[in-house]
Amino acid sequence: MRIAFTDRELDVMSVLWDLGDATVAEVRERLADKLAYTTVLTVLRTLEHKGTSSTAGEGRAHRYHTAGPARGSRPQRATPARRQSVSGARRALDDPSRFATRV
Question: What CATH class is the domain 4-77?
Answer without folding.
Answer: mainly alpha
